[in-house]
Amino acid sequence: MRITCPCCGERGLDEFSYRGDATLSRPAGDPPLPGAGAEAWAEYVYLRDNPSGPHRELWYHGAGCRSWLVVTRNTRTHEILDTERAVNVVRATRKDAEA
Amino acid sequence: MPDPLHARGPLSPSACSYDHGGIRITDMSGRQVAGVALLGGDRAALDATVRQAWGVDLPDTPRIVAGSGLTFAWAGPDQWLALSDAVDDSGPDLEHVLRTTLGPLAAVTDQGDSRVALRISGPGSRDALSRLLPIDLHPRAFSPGNTALTLAGHIGVQVWQVDSCPTYDILVFRSFARSLHHDLCAAARGAARAA
């Protein structure tokens, strides 16, 4: 499997590490402060879907530019459909939230 | 009285030189290296200061640019390595110069004790290096001025092409310098045999 890093170009899998599901969003508030309930936290920390098909994932380019990436990968074929820097995804999400 | 501490090079002196079959491997460990990172600061102000002081634009793609007295190498988004032109530790303290010039615009860290440059040059060096690096070194993909952060075997390195001789510099963590030098020599012998 090869991933095209937005900074470095196409590189082999051994330069990257998988860092989990990119579709999760952190529940509001921090325990034990008021905010989301224990159930929401348990789901955020422990429960994961096992999707078949395109999935958004976090990957870390540790042996390259050290960027965190959001990679859209087809879990059935390992085809990489899209890669973008996680920091840009976060910025775009914040901008949308403000708009 | 305790024995004084003596600075030692990263490579043993006997292992330093390799010059066979059109491939030359040199220890460049005297070169000063410093890291420059924006860390969320004002990029436009940093660009303006660097342009005024060294006459170059900081690269946003994996390239190296030579300014007056030093070279900047892209080392990740909004991160660069500055390298002194002098290869023998002479000249002004690079970290001090950068810190004084850039002030609060960027974080500057001395990397000279942490990283070491090895140079491989000669007609066979591309073949030798291709045995170690998982990136395409063909001139259409990687030419003088290009740099890459990648792995040489399992060793993290930053490599850039200096000229079309070709000559490459490989920056590696100091404690890995002997291993990488050994691997480079083995790759050079293999490439020479295959040629």
TrEMBL record, chain A:
One of its GO terms (molecular function) is sarcosine oxidase activity. Pfam families: SoxD. InterPro entries: SoxD, SoxD_sf. GO terms for biological process: tetrahydrofolate metabolic process. It comes from the Bacteria. This is Sarcosine oxidase subunit delta. It comes from Gluconacetobacter tumulisoli.
TrEMBL record, chain B:
Signal peptide: none annotated. It comes from the Bacteria. Transmembrane segments: none annotated. Coiled coil: none annotated. It holds the Pfam family SoxG. This is Sarcosine oxidase subunit gamma.
